[in-house]
Amino acid sequence: MTDSITEQRLVGGPRPDLDLTQAEWQSSTQGVGGVQIAFVEGYIAMRNRHSPEIPALIFTPAEWRAFVLDAREGEFDLT
């Protein structure tokens, strides 16, 4: 199950021409959650490790930084 170039979605913009078939997906060091990320050609790809066939989200470095900072501040805490 690999992502094709046509299945990728860039958050907030056009699709980059990335091939994720050889991406080195990383999971949390704590082993919790289902999110994996990969750094590919200057972009950050994020996918669900339980459903890797679902298209990955693609972030620019600026978008990724904003996402991480907001997550640290509890922006996405739904509890």
> What percentage of residues falls in helices of 4 or more residues?
10-25%
Poorly predicted spans: 1-7
Give the overall silhouette.
Answer: globular
Structural class: alpha+beta
Write down how many β-strands occur, each being a DSSP E stretch of 2 or more residues. Answer: 5
Beta-strand residue percentage: 15-25%
Which strand order does the major sheet show? Answer: 1-5-4-3-2
Distance between the termini: 33 Å
Averaged pLDDT, please?
A: 82
Give the topology string: H per helix, E per strand.
EEEEEH
Q: What's the tally of helices?
A: 1
Q: Mind telling me the C-alpha Rg?
A: 13 Å
Mind describing the biggest β-sheet?
A: 5 strands, mixed
Protein name: DUF397 domain-containing protein
Pfam family, one: DUF397
Region (Disordered): 1-20
InterPro entries: DUF397
What can you see in these coordinates?
With 79 residues, the protein is an alpha+beta fold. It is built from 1 helix and 5 strands. It has one helix spanning 61-72; strands at 9-10, 26-27, 35-40, 43-48, 57-59. A 5-stranded mixed beta sheet has the order 1-5-4-3-2. Mean pLDDT is 82; it is low at 1-7.
List keywords for this structure.
79 residues; five-stranded mixed β-sheet; 5 strands; DUF397 domain-containing protein; DUF397
Summarize the SSE layout with pairings.
Layout: E1 9-10, E2 26-27, E3 35-40, E4 43-48, E5 57-59, H1 61-72
Parallel strand pairs: 1-5
Antiparallel strand pairs: 2-3, 3-4, 4-5
